């Protein structure tokens, strides 16, 4: 089976992990801050806060921006459920902004129209969470500008997009947002097994997220309500979680992130090959946006005849091509339907879902395996 995605582990990654296992610290010792600094430097952000996974990072990002009950967060319907769930963990309500059919990203025109209506109704969101679907940045200049005009905070769900760039800025530099979140799940661009990181340029937000990942505890006397009782003393200032990343994971991430450029270059080569090899097939290929370099976490094709999609999907699986589908529109999940959403609410997202297939995309995908994928697609599409 050729999978749709897989990790790439080098001998030096294994050595780095073994080093930590032989050291004094297994969890949050010196390697977590080293990994945070490496990612922050790589993407041009002021701070990085490493946590157990991107879902946790999205959760504490929402908390740090004070999202709570009666507040509203808007995200994209074409994302993993975690983007929307982060708001629900805070007791906030979720709504969605439909996608641009060509990029699968939150549509800025739809956002603008929805903001006008929401403002008139007196129900603006507190946070907008665009998702850089498949690794290509959303139009952050426009989304960030619209948000700022209405006093709304922005969290980028950049789980797919480390190593990508937009308008000459790396994704994660937070040029048009308050916080950006990366995932280090094994199918993503670089991995820590499980892991995530929240990037920000705001020292206060970074400090708040550092506290929230460790129960809400501080050891900083300046933040305490009284003088410390002694050298052991700490205070619980607010209710947080244990979302700490281990040094074992951070060592893997630190070693992996040193190859980020190679990974993203290779993914772009694979995408370029697919773009040319598939162009005569009855498919819509992923839209490319100017001034934007995708990290190409995913390569999504859409059938020109969506009625053929299931047959094509099944036929590819049958010949050993591990195609997948990213994503089922979040608002159609039973949990969100129970909150009042239903079919027809976001037509572009729903049309995308009817036509999409993710085909294999990972840095060690060989040219010959890519040819097998292309030939199989040609065979089943015609
Ligand atoms: C993978 C992913 C997440 C969740 O990441 P984890 O690290 O698995 O928690 C969130 N949002 C998107 C868009 C993702 O692809």
Structure, described:
Helix content is 37%, strand content 14%. Helix 2 runs parallel beside helix 8. It is globular and about 75 Å long. The two termini are 23 Å apart. The protein contains 13 helices and 15 strands. The chain is α/β, with parallel strands linked by helices. The strands form four sheets. A seven-stranded mixed beta sheet has the order 1-9-8-5-4-2-3, sandwiched between helices. The protein has a three-stranded antiparallel beta sheet with strand order 7-6-13, with no helix packed on it. It has a three-stranded antiparallel beta sheet with strand order 12-14-15.
Question: Outline of this structure?
Answer:
With 382 residues, this protein is α/β, with parallel strands linked by helices. Helix content is 37%, strand content 14%. Strands 1-9-8-5-4-2-3 form a seven-stranded mixed beta sheet, with helices on both faces. Strands 7-6-13 form a three-stranded antiparallel beta sheet, with no helix packed on it. It has a three-stranded antiparallel beta sheet with strand order 12-14-15.
Write the SSE topology.
Blueprint: H1 11-21, H2 31-43, E1 47-51, H3 54-64, E2 72-75, H4 82-89, E3 93-96, H5 108-120, E4 127-129, H6 140-149, E5 153-157, E6 165-166, E7 169-170, E8 179-183, E9 196-200, H7 203-212, E10 217-218, E11 235-236, H8 247-257, H9 260-277, E12 283-284, E13 292-293, E14 299-303, H10 309-318, H11 334-337, H12 347-355, E15 356-359, H13 367-381
Parallel strand pairs: 2-3, 2-4, 4-5, 5-8
Antiparallel strand pairs: 1-9, 6-7, 6-13, 8-9, 10-11, 12-14, 14-15
Helix pairs in contact: 1-8, 2-8, 3-4, 3-7, 10-13
The chain binds pyridoxal-5'-phosphate (PLP).
């Amino acid at each position: 089976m050729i999978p749709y995605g897989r990790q790439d582990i080098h001998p030096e990654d294994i050595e780095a992990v073994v080093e930590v296992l032989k050291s004094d610290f297994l969890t949050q010792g010196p390697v977590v801050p080293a990994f945070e600094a490496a990612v922050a430097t790589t993407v041009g952000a002021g701070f990085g806060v490493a946590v157990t996974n991107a879902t946790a990072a999205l959760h504490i990002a929402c908390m740090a921006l004070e999202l709570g009950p009666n507040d509203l967060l808007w995200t994209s319907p074409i994302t993993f459920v975690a983007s929307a769930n982060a708001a629900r963990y805070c007791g906030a309500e979720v709504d969605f902004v439909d996608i641009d059919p060509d990029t699968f990203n939150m549509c800025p025109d739809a956002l603008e129209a929805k903001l006008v209506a929401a403002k008139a109704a007196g129900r603006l969101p507190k946070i907008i969470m665009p998702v850089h679907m498949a690794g290509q940045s959303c139009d952050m200049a426009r989304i960030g500008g619209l948000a700022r005009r209405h006093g709304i905070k922005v969290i980028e769900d950049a789980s797919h997009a480390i190593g990508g760039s937009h308008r000459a800025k790396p994704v994660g530099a937070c040029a048009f947002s308050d916080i950006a979140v990366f995932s280090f799940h094994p199918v993503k661009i670089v991995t820590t097994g499980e892991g995530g990181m929240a990037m920000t340029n705001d020292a206060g937000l970074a400090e708040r997220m550092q506290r929230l990942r460790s129960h809400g505890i501080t050891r900083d006397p300046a933040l305490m309500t009284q003088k410390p009782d002694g050298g052991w003393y700490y205070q619980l200032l607010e209710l947080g979680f244990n979302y700490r990343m281990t040094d074992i994971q951070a060592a893997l991430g630190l070693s992996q992130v040193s190859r980020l450029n190679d990974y993203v270059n290779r993914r772009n080569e694979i995408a370029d090959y697919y773009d040319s090899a598939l162009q005569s097939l009855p498919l819509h290929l992923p839209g490319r946006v100017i001034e934007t370099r995708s990290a190409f976490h995913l390569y999504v094709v859409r059938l020109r005849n969506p009625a053929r999609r299931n047959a094509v999907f099944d036929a590819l699986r049958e010949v050993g091509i591990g195609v997948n589908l990213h994503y089922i529109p979040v608002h159609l999940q039973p949990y969100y339907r129970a909150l009042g959403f239903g079919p027809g609410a976001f037509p572009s997202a729903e049309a995308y879902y009817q036509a999409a297939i993710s085909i294999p995309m990972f840095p060690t995908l060989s040219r010959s395996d890519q040819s097998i994928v292309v030939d199989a697609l040609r065979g089943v599409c015609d």
